[in-house]
Amino acid sequence: MRSIQWSACPKADPPYPDASKRTQCGTVEVPVDWAKPDGPTMKIAVARQKATDPKKRLGVLLSNPGGPGNSGLDDAYYADDPVVGYHKNIRSRFDIIGFDPRGIGRSGQFRCDDKLAAKVPTRPKNAAEFERMRSLNKQLADSCRKRSGPVVDHMDSISVARDMDAIRAALGEKQISFLGHSYGTLIGRQYARLFPQKLRALALDSAMDPSRPDARRYLTDGSAAVEEGVQRLADWCAKDRSCALKGKDVKAVVRGLFARADAGRLFEPGTHGPTRKKVTADQLSGFLTAYLGKWNPQTTAEQLGALNSGKGKVSWMDGTPELAWRTVLCRDYDFRLRDWAQYRELRQRAQSANPHSRYNSQALDMILGCQGWPSAPEPEPAQAKGTLPPVLVVNAKHDLATPLPGARRMAQEFPKGRLAVLDSVDHWLYRECQSPLPARAIDTYLRTLKTPPHGTVYPGR
Question: How does pLDDT run across 253-268, given as a tens digit for each residue?
Fold first, then answer.
């Protein structure tokens, strides 16, 4: 494996700031298809900030920000940023390595027919719409392949894990430490299966379910987390005087909103009363998934109150993920549904079990996005021989994007897996939650390989 030729990083695309002057950039050449190592190749964009204290250097720290499909160069670009960067006790000990996963950002520029994507039904209402969705999803995949090239068929997490090992070799390192966030935890898990002897440390923040759940279990776990979020909102309103629904039965209000939406009698609120714009039950489920996942109970209660009274304003969040996630997720998980009847049963089961939220909108987006997508899931890689280090998994107890049951399964994957839980609704606990405790635990682990006791619970806000 040829070493990386480092140089100054290119200018960032506005409005993003340029990379730190301490950051260097380069590329690593890898096969497009790892099953054909002598076939066509592509370049993976890599960035580095070298350890600030070479005498105390422990090695390299690679990371992945998840998505799936997010750029990963920023971790190295801004590693020394006082707000979004790493603590100095990490920067002093590690070379911080960021990379764009194959097909993403500077590693391939994934492209599809956006006009075609806009035509795909997001919540099919009958068998005809379900089949139209599957047909358009296939056409969309074909457009991605035509515009982006053969990499579209090889953007799964196993291929990315193999790319990571190519980066390790090009860096001249015997081992790496890895910090994965959200979907990046699955990439870390795949690396552990393929190259256990090449891992010094593995920290997994907001963990995906490694057991490859089918569509039913994926929606069941995610929807239960949203339903629990409604209960938490009700509990908060019972205690906090600032709640706009103070004195009301919050769950009864939500049930009433769904009933009105089902009957076609729920409208967006306006300054002087309801507008003529209808709000569907699917929109309501999407609202609850988005707002309860961010956990701003005051704003959530205010907007539910506006929907209930008809006066005020609701700000709808666009939670639709970027198209690139399909090329990854639909090869990592098997969400394929037999037909409209199975989809309808899936929806009905979720609604019966979760009367105050019905379903997790993000989870359903991902399930439906894989219907008709012409790629079968990659076979599970066998666990290679080698001793794994202690593995640290951290997760919020009430995370809607990566529910706690999946994080428990992730920790159980490893002989020395340890799970620490933050009693909150957060997602992505390193830097992006208000409690500093998970980040401290991760930093301590990365430096010393010492984990908190399994089952540790940190108090939330």
Answer: 999 999 999 999 999 9
